[in-house]
Sequence to fold (217 residues):
Amino acid sequence: MKKLGIIFDMDGVLVDSEPVIKMAAIKGLAQYGVHAKPEDFEPFVGAGEDRFIGGVAEAYHTPYVPEMKKLVYQIYGELVDKHLKIYDGVPEMLIRLSEKGYKLALASSADMIKVKANLQTAGISFDLFQVVLTGEDVVRKKPAPDIFIKAGERLGLSSQDCWVVEDAVNGLKAAKAAEMHCIGITSSFNRNRLEAENPDYVFDNTLDIEAIFDKMM
Fold:
């Protein structure tokens, strides 16, 4: 079988942490006098926490400072064990894909502290991924293609041999800009929003991707 890579986003694909990070960001920003609402964060989903937090702060005419993210991550760490939603069957699916010979990578716009907290809580081993990249590994975040290009290079694969699995519009834009195949998951945006980015497939459940890759074997 030709070697193929599957590059996973984390939030909304492997785990559902968006409600938790929104909860943490709302609590954290409130300490800076910003009284944000959950819907305020939607334009910044998938763009990394600097923009996720900073974009909302700036929308309320409050300059972003790095201490905001530090505080939000501190609050997130207190909430994640209780509130993180783990998608049933995803850890087992990752094991099967790895055993079938697919080269797996994780490319998240979040910082490593959040990636580690989520994977540990979800029971997903770091060892399943040949490459793990976070928002700290690139200057330009999604929708720039940098993190996916770097993941493909680290996997030793061409862009045409890489498939990206994403839930966010910014993530699909990044995958398309990297000239990679991509699959949208409707956990954060509706089907119409994702299909507007022309992904190869759109599914409602991350587990549905396995059938596509089984056909490629």
